[in-house]
Design a protein that fits this description.
single chain; alpha/beta; two-stranded parallel sheet; elongated
Length: 166
């Protein structure tokens, strides 16, 4: 009897010709799906909780206003205090408002909204929404000041961000 043929079988080689196509497809998928943050947050906030929430549909027409306590600067243990900007403006218990990448006051909202309108297309101008992302401990007086400034800037839609109550 001849037993030599039993070990002569070899495993067929894996065809890797389509591997680069697969890798580029996965890379393209993640490039499309991921959202890159364009604003560096200088305030920290914990949004309030709610039960009757809706999602914003067209995010290109949304401008964001952040209200919270000053965020800790990288490499520092306590909250950052930017000496070039006024702290909380007018006694809001250490809360600050951020528009884009700078600390602002409600009086700066009109200029910001004008610049945002020029940036948007005509279709987005009609649907322009301002989303206020405020800390749950923000004084109501500060939110009212922001709301009044948005009203003077002719903003028709204001959205308040919250997370789903668990």
């Amino acid at each position: 009897m001849i037993f030599g043929n039993r070990n002569s079988r070899q495993m067929p080689q894996l065809n890797t010709a389509s591997l680069p196509d697969l890798i580029f497809t996965v890379l393209f998928f993640f490039m499309v799906v991921t959202h890159m943050r364009t604003v560096t947050l200088k305030v920290s906030f914990r949004v309030p909780q709610g039960t009757e929430l809706t999602r914003l549909t067209k995010k290109t027409a949304v401008s964001y206003v952040y209200i919270g306590r000053p965020a800790a600067a990288p490499g520092k243990g306590k909250a950052a205090s930017d000496d070039s900007q006024p702290a909380s403006g007018y006694g809001n218990n250490g809360f600050q408002m951020q528009i884009n990448d700078r600390i602002a006051s409600p009086s700066d909202i009109a200029g910001f909204m004008s610049a945002e309108r020029h940036r948007m297309s005509d279709e987005d101008r009609a649907r322009q929404t301002v989303s206020v992302k405020a800390d749950r401990q923000t004084p109501m007086g500060m939110i009212t000041d922001v709301k009044q400034a948005l009203r003077k800037a002719h903003v028709q839609r204001i959205s308040y961000s919250a997370e789903k109550r668990k």
